[in-house]
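Input structure tokens:
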């Protein structure tokens, strides 16, 4: 049944379909003849050549399946596809290598371009510096020649003008010889013009009676420490030539100068204080100069307070300087308390200085005791100092009210201090009203303090001006009523009142109406009234109450500003307001009404308001009305209102009507 081959080269009679050895090739003689037979393993038959395999394969014989015979074309097609893919891959690799080469070449060019740009920028700054120096030298030469010519004409020999060394920080500026000659009356204007010619590309110079210097925001990144040093030196040199070394007022504002450091402001304070020792009024503002730190404040304060004993007005602003902390505020208080004994007005601004906390606020107040007899006006602003809490405010209020009993004008800004609550506010107002008996003007700003919801009664009997701002607070109708009652009973000397409660969602017509009732019954000497209730729940009753009740007794009112933007005031409310204003405020000099985005006001209400104003306030000199984005007011209605105002108000000197289509 089986054929066996012992020889390795023998071929089997039959192979399987693919020429592989069959099962019988692996059998041994022992497997077939039994155990007694000597074991002889039969080896596998050698694999036939490919040609023999194809010849002996069933696929090559007729009568087999024709579908299997299609493998050769498929194989060739697969080989062709593989070759194409390999060629495409090779081409892709070549393209990728070329793109990589182009990218590296472009990056190299970009790097070189940036380097060239940097060199060019430095070269431009150097040329500007050289140009400024050259202009200064030319002006000095012209002045020296002019003086020599004048001296020659008068028969007097005049020496040449000294030359300044702008590079050394210990610069000595000498007065120009011949200053005993008559100085022109417009020397300050000439100084401003000369400074404008040289430094006009960086600074703006006021044309008023006070020397005021403002940096240009568009060139802020070009104001460096050497620039400030050179400018200060030139400023003092020009003051010397114009016989203005006795300058008594100076204001310098450096806005958003990111490259200005401690060295620049210390040099500025040092040179100004040494050469302008007769300064009585100095205002320096470094808003947004992010590189200024506590060391800079300490150095600046030390020079100013040491060398300017005649100073009676000092204003320093460091708004938006994030590196200032409690240490800087404390050191500033130390320096001003040691030397500035004649100080009458002091203004400090630390808005958006996030590192200042309760310690910074409390460390300032004890040093104010040195000015207990002289200081009359104090303004402190800590807006957006989020670390200030009730504890710091309570200590600050107690210390301040005990030391500055002669204070007449106080302004405090703690807006956006989110940790302040009713307790801190009540401690502040009660302490101030109990101790500051001579206070004439009070300005409190607690805008965007979301934890404040109540107003304690105020009892400032001698107060003549009051400003309260509580935007975006939780104050509602009841606290407003308590405030109105307090104002009517105790503020009998008040002649200017400003109340601002914008975006107070709990405030409605009832609270606004109470203000009109209680103010009109008691504040008969009030001359200026400013009320802002934008984006509140005011519909119409409150506006009617303001107009109706205020007009009963406030006959001496000269300035009235009402703001009801984004409220539900209607045509009837606006018309009623016009009737009350026109019939009762005969002494009114300025009327301002803001009704922006009031969707219920139409042409009818606008023109009725205009009719009442024109019929009874023909001598009104100033009128301002804002009705922008009121959807029911048309072009025709606005034109009619403007035509009526201009035709009937013959004494009108200022008229402003803002209207934009919704």
């Amino acid at each position: 049944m089986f054929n066996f081959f012992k020889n390795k080269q023998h071929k089997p009679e039959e192979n399987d379909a693919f020429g592989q050895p069959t099962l019988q090739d692996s059998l041994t003689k022992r497997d077939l003849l039994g155990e007694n037979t000597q074991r002889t393993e039969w080896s596998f038959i050698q694999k036939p050549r490919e040609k023999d395999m194809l010849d002996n394969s069933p696929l090559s014989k007729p009568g087999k399946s024709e579908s299997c015979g299609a493998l050769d074309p498929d194989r060739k097609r697969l080989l062709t596809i593989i070759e194409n893919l390999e060629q495409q891959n090779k081409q892709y690799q070549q393209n990728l290598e070329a793109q990589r080469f182009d990218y590296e070449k472009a990056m190299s060019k970009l790097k070189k371009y940036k380097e060239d740009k940097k060199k060019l920028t430095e070269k431009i700054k150097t040329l500007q510096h050289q140009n400024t120096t050259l202009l200064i030298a030319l002006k000095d030469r012209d002045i020296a020649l002019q003086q020599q010519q004048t001296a020659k004409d008068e028969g007097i020999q005049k020496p040449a003008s000294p030359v300044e060394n702008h590079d050394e920080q210990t610069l000595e500026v000498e007065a120009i010889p011949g200053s005993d000659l008559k100085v022109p009356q417009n020397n300050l204007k000439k100084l401003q013009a000369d400074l404008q010619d040289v430094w006009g590309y960086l600074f703006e110079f006021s044309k008023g009676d006070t020397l005021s210097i403002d940096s240009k925001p568009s060139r802020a990144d070009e104001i460096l420490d050497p620039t400030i040093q050179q400018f200060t030196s030139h400023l003092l040199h020009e003051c010397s030539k114009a016989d203005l070394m006795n300058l008594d007022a100076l204001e310098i504002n450096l806005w958003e100068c990111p490259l200005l450091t401690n060295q620049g402001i210390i040099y500025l304070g040092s040179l100004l204080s040494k050469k302008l020792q007769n300064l009585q009024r100095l205002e320096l503002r470094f808003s947004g100069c992010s590189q200024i730190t506590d060391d800079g404040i300490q150095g600046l304060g030390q020079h100013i307070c040491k060398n300017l004993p005649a100073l009676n007005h000092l204003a320093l602003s460091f708004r938006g300087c994030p590196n200032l902390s409690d240490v800087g505020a404390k050191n500033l208080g130390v320096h001003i308390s040691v030397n500035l004994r004649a100080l009458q007005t002091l203004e400090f601004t630390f808005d958006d200085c996030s590192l200042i906390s309760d310690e910074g606020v409390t460390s300032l107040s004890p040093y104010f005791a040195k000015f207990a007899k002289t200081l009359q006006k104090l303004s402190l602003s800590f807006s957006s100092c989020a670390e200030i809490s009730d504890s710091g405010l309570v200590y600050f209020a107690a210390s301040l009210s005990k030391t500055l009993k002669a204070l007449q004008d106080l302004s405090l800004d703690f807006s956006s201090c989110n940790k302040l609550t009713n307790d801190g506010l009540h401690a502040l107002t009660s302490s101030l009203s109990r101790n500051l008996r001579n206070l004439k003007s009070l300005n409190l700003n607690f805008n965007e303090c979301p934890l404040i919801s109540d107003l304690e009664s105020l009892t400032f009997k001698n107060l003549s001006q009051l400003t309260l701002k509580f935007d975006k607070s939780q104050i509602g109708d009841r606290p407003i009523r308590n405030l109105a009652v307090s104002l009517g009973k105790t503020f009998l000397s008040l002649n200017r009142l400003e109340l601002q409660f914008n975006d107070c969602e709990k405030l409605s017509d009832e609270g606004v109406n109470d203000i009109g009732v209680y103010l009109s019954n008691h504040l008969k000497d009030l001359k200026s009234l400013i009320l802002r209730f934008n984006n509140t729940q005011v519909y119409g009753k409150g506006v009617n109450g303001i107009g109706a009740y205020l007009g009963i007794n406030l006959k001496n009112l000269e300035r009235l500003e009402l703001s009801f933007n984004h409220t539900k005031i209607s045509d009837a409310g606006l018309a009623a307001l016009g009737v009350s204003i026109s019939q009762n405020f005969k002494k009114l000099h300025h009327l301002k009404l803001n009704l922006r985005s009031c969707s219920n006001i139409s042409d009818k209400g606008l023109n009725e308001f205009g009719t009442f104003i024109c019929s009874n306030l023909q001598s009104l000199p100033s009128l301002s009305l804002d009705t922008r984005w009121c959807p029911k007011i048309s072009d025709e209605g606005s034109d009619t209102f403007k035509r009526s105002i201009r035709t009937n108000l013959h004494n009108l000197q200022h008229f402003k009507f803002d209207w934009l289509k919704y």
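The longest strand covers residues 211-215. The domain at 465-662 is CATH 3.80.10.10 (Leucine-rich repeat, LRR (right-handed beta-alpha superhelix)).
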